[in-house]
Amino acid sequence: MDINKILKEMTLEEKATLLSGKKLWFFNGIKRLGIRDFIVSDGPHGIRAYYDFSESQGYPKTKAPATAFPSASCMASTWNETLIQEVGETIAKECNHYKVDVVLGPGVNGKRSPLGGRNFEYYSEDPVLTAKLGTCFVKGVQSQGVGTSLKHFVLNEQETLRRFISSNIDERTFRELYAYPFERIIKDAKPLTIMAAYNKVNGIYACENSETLTKLLREDWGYEGIAISDWGGVQNKRASVFAGMDIEMPQAEWTKSFIEDVKKGLYPIHVIDAAVQLILKAYEWMLNNPNHGKQTDFEMNHQVAQSVAEEGIVLLKNDDAFLPLSKKDSIVVLGTYAKHPRTHGGGSSELLAYKTEIPLDEINHYTQTLYFENYQLTEASIDAIQKADKVLIFTGTTTEIEHEGDDRLNLLLPSEQIIFIKEVTTINKNVAIINNSGSAIEVREFIDDVKAFVQSWFLGSASGKAIAKIIFGEVNPSGKLSETFPYQIENTSTYSSFPGKGLHTDYTEGFDTGYRFFDTHKIPVSFPFGFGLSYTTFEYSNVRFSKKELVNGDTLIIRVDVKNTGSISGMETLQVYVKTLNTNRPNPNKLLKGFAKRMIEPKKTSTFEIILHDYDFAGFYPEFGQFLVEKGDYEVHIGTSVQDIITKQLIHFESMDITSMPLTLDQPVKAWINSSKDEIRIHDFLVHNRKIHFYEYEEPMERIIRRIMNELGKEISEIEAFLNAI
To answer: Hey, which of 179, 485, 539, 550 would disulfide with 526, CB 3.0 to 4.6 Å?
Structure first.
């Protein structure tokens, strides 16, 4: 495609048309010039497909089957980058099957509060884990010739009033926590499109915000793809165009008037042409897709979804080796979700599943159980529970509790389920919970009463087999939590401020969210970030660091030998956290920076290797407008969760980055003394004259210099000359 030639041949009307969507799911093509329309569709957990996207004048209703993958929270709990890339590839194959050009995902927003109504659709409360998995997903999708749409850019961490709320945040927190996944994925995977959010960012709508859409995205990060709006996210078409919004989705009520305004010359042609060039470049990429229309094997795709479910399920409690179950056990299964699993969280993750496995059916393939559906005891169920060797209770959130569009009111399971658990555990102590929720819940009211607890998330199509294989030991659980399970919602830092009410939500808690808050302030949790049990045991030894001293541009290679000391194969995830020592800035206790997952056979040893780059030691410095590494010491922690640290190593980083602004003479003496290595004249002056009295430490440096020089009998001219020379 000769983009410059096409640009010259296009009419103003054709150019303007490209800056708006067509109907619900199309980017406009240019039929006169032989460029077709392009289809986009929801799909963070699998493509929402239609047999005919043009049905009902472009607003289709007849869905076509597709593989329903586990929720993003479950995907992240696999901690398996290779597997998530395979998920992306598989979803893209189904996009090609249905001739879909762009899948609207992944979602990489943060989990500021466990109450976030859309947390199930986002990977993790940690930006590094989110960035690494999001990068793999994008690479996987785009390797098959299908585009992605990285969303929701940016600060869409709450559903309450999401179309009107202003997310107000300081620059450092924004760049290190919430913008970081977007930045890394854009630089490392180059998503074809990025989707701007509904909300305002520091008072300006994300779809009309030049600071994020142009300055940050284009100028700072060098993004070359196209920016599209969330569906209905543009409130002012003119403002969005000038801010850097390329395509407004879907077709809007002002599309015709916008086209007329462009034809009348009411928009500078260079602004329109800049957007059109980006759009044509993306069109060229999609037109070169050799897989467009290629048929796929849905049975094979389902196996990928099952692998994710198996690796994403997290075993959180297993007293007395309650699990795995034996086929010889007499088992009673209780609860609605055993027969009617909740597979997704609704909204943009809704689709028509190619098939859905039922947990109860799959469990009965191992052994015949007695099943009672509702959360009410009957004479028959009481008798069965009393006689059973083991009891499984399937719990979960309802569509009213957890879904797109609303934030959660609390972290509790429905009260009838909690009461039911307590009633059952008074009859039989051998109880396991299989919990079906898309994000964290409170377990404090019942966790001490049960022997085992399995977090199964929203597992999509593969709900049944994955759960059955885990609880009967055919698959050894290897999931690790991608988010903290707090003891109670009142213990979270955003309890009093989330969701923001009125027209703004202020991120005043800064870094104090998720494990960063609990770990730093030593607040007990039910289950920590990164935690998950296995049916086998591991032993760690021979920890090696490639260097103890780093300089800018260096990489740090960490190797650890891990032995499977049990009798069955198992996968282990090793995690690396970094703690900044002796810093002048507030920092969390430690931050995740790397991880690796490996399968290890029984009695065998595997060497894990994790590589840290200099940017893993960097923080964002607003005064300099960039990420910098502070010179000093760092502790590198190696563990199996944020709480379970095996060992730590002191590393010195001899950074050449300047991370502090020059001191001024109106700052206190104490500040000058602490940084005297960079201020030789002041240092020498203080050392060679007199000690600073304790009451002088908080006084301005200039005042103390004048005072001491007066004591030494210096003339005013000498004092002024000395001060001017600093």
So the answer is: 485
pLDDT tens per residue, range 47-79: 999 999 999 999 999 999 999 999 999 999 999
> Residue 653: is it exposed, middle or buried by C-beta count within 10 angstroms (0-12/13-18/19+)?
buried
The answer to whether the CB of 176 falls within 8 A of the CB of 125 is: no
- What is the chain's mean pLDDT, rounded? 96
CATH fold of 3-287 reads TIM Barrel (3.20.20)
Region 180-194: what's the mean pLDDT?
A: 98
CATH architecture designation of domain 538-653: Sandwich (2.60)
Contacts of 102 (CB under 8 A, 6+ apart): 27, 38, 39, 40, 41, 146, 147, 148, 149, 192, 193, 286
Distance of alpha carbon 102 from the chain centroid: 21
Q: Are 520 and 162 in contact (CB under 8 A)?
A: no
* Residue type at 668 in one-letter notation: P
Q: What residue spans define the domains of the chain? A: 3-287, 306-527, 538-653, 669-725
What's the average model confidence in pLDDT over 539-553? 97
Distance CA 157, CA 178 (A): 9
Is residue 230 part of the annotated active site? The answer reads yes
pLDDT digits (tens, 9 = 90+) for 420-451: 999 999 999 999 999 999 999 999 999 999 99
Catalytic one among 42, 230, 614, 616?
A: 230
Does the reported pTM lie above 0.85? yes
